[in-house]
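Chapter summary example: a protein plus FE2/S2 (inorganic) cluster.
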Amino acid sequence: MASAATERASTTFRSSIDHENGLVDRAIFSDQAIYKAELEQIFSRAWLFMCHESQIPNAGDFFQTYMGEEKVIVVRSRDRSVEVMLNACRHRGATVCRAHSGNTPNFICAYHGWTYDLSGNLIGVPGMNELYERKLDRSEWGLKKAAKVSSYRGFIFATLDESAPSLEVFLGNAGRYMIDNLANYGEIEVIPGIIRHRLRANWKLAMENDQDYYHVGITHASALDAWGVARTTVNKNYWDDNVGDLVLGEFGHVQDTIPGHFHANIFPHMCIFTDLLQAVVVRHPKGPAEVEQWYFSFVDKNASEVQKREVIRRNISRLGPTGMIEQDDGENWEFCTEGAASSAMRDVPFNYQMGIGKGEMDDGSAVGFPLLRGGPRTTEEYARWQLRCWAEWMDAESWPALLEKHSNPAVI
Ligand code: FES
Ligand SMILES: [Fe+2]
C-alpha cells in the first residue's frame, strides 16, 4: 500500500507549498520518497557549484565533490580545460580517486587497476592481452562526464542534464550579481582546507536559515554574550529597524538586504556570505535527514598575511564543527528535521506566514533584476519564494518544461 507521502510524491508538489498563505507540508523535510525525487528533479538537473578555479590552477590538479549523492572529480586537464567526471570506474563502479584533492597524471582504480587519463579516457587495462585478448575497446569505456561544465568569474559549475540551459540563464542577472559580490573582493582565491561536517538535518532547513534574521538574537544568544553583543542590539538591528530589500531570482535564488549583509543562495545548495565572512557553503544532501556542509574560505590573493589570517580565524570560530554560530544553528535544524518526521503531527503544516504581502515588487529595471523593495528585513518572504520554486523544480517533467513554467519574480 502506498504511504500518504508516496501518494503525495506522485501527485503535485505545488500542493505541498501554499505560499499565498504561508503553509508548508512538513513531509517535504523528512520523507524518503520526496528526497529521492529531489535527487532526480533538482540535483540531477540544476547547475551545481563544484569549486573555484583557484583550487585547480595546474594540469592534473583535481578536487573531489558531489552532484547530489554522485561522487565527481573536477580536473584541470592537459589542455587546461576543466572536466567534471563521475568518480566511478566503468568496470565495476569502484571509486577511481580517493583523495579530496591533489595533483595526478591519471586516475587508477584501486580494485583491478583500470587507468584513466585526466580527460577520463580509459588508457590502461591490466591483462589486456592475456585476459581480454585485446578485444576490449577502450574508447568505449571512459569515465562518464557531467553533461555541461561552465564557469562564471572563476566559480565552476556543472550539470548532469544535457537539456539544461546555459549557466548564464540558470544564474540570471540576480545570481550573477550574488557571485559578483564575492568576486569583487579582488583577485580571490580559496584558502586550502575545506571545513566539512555532517548534521542530521534536511538540506532545505540549512538553506532557508541563511536569510533568517528572526532567530539570530535567540538561537545565538550565548555566542552574542561571549562576543559582548547585547541581544537587544541584535534584535533592534534586525527587527525594529525592519526595512530591507530582497532579491528574488529565477529558479529559487535569493539574497537578503542590499546594502548591508549579503547572504545569497544560489538554488539549490550554494550559499555565499560576504559580510563578516568571506565564505561559500555548499550543502550536499545525504538523505532526507542528513546533510554534509562544506565551507570554502575566500581571500583576496593580494591581501596581507594578517588579513588572510583574520578571515581564517573568523570563519573557524563561527562556521563548521568548531564554530559557535554553526553549532547553534545545526542543533536547531536537527530538531526541526525530527519535528518534520512526526507522525502525530503529519497533517499539521509548518508556519511560513511572516511578512506576507509586505513590500513592493520592483521589476528591477534600475539594477537589472527584480527586487522586493521596502519590505521587512526580518521576513519569511525569501523562504516562501525558495519553496515555491522548489515545487516548480519538483513538478517539472524536464528542463524545457521548467523554463516554460517557472515563476518570474518580476510579475509575482
Ligand atoms: S572496479 Fe575498477 S578496475 Fe575493476
Ligand atoms: Fe544562525
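Key point: Residues 89, 91-92, 94, 109, 111-114 surround FE2/S2 (inorganic) cluster (ligand 1) (CB under 6 Å).
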